[in-house]
Fold this sequence. Notes:
Keywords: Membrane, Transmembrane, Transmembrane helix. Residues 131-164 are annotated as: Disordered. This protein is an all-alpha fold. The chain has a domain at 19-123. It has six helices and no strands. Helix 2 (22-42) packs antiparallel against helix 5 (106-121). The protein is globular, with a radius of gyration of 24 Å. 17% of the residues are buried.
Amino acid sequence: MLRDATDGFVRALCPPRPCPRIRYRLLAAAVTALGGIAIALNAPHTSGLSGRLWVVSFLVVAPLVAIARLLPAVNAALALIVGAAGAAVVNALVAQSMLAADVWSPHGGIVAVGLAAAFLWLVPIGRPGAETSSAETHVSRRPSADDGDLPESPSHSTRKAGAA
């Protein structure tokens, strides 16, 4: 049980993955920003539940994925939870800022959230000097009974007795 808890802690302390190349981040940012603009331009022409569903899903998913990408050393489920909380914060900040500046419009809010998510895609993660092709693999060494800090397991002692 203790080993399972320490394995997660050791993985969290691993060095971060290399920084993705700028062209991939720019592509993701451009797709996100253009998606927000396209949804904002198309929102008045869509009626019914499907149009509203596309708008709401974009407002939640675009910042969620952009924020979850910033957490490479974290479990995927935890990164999605943090990304969902971050998406709610981004949406609240955009709405609050636009209301305070007296420039609120639903279409402008969609574009602003899309641009905020696009800017999040541009944040580099990992080591800035490393390339993605030369990714280092981190192999953690598990303590063994020969180290002296763990008691011998019965299966380990029977193997030693059988070998002698």
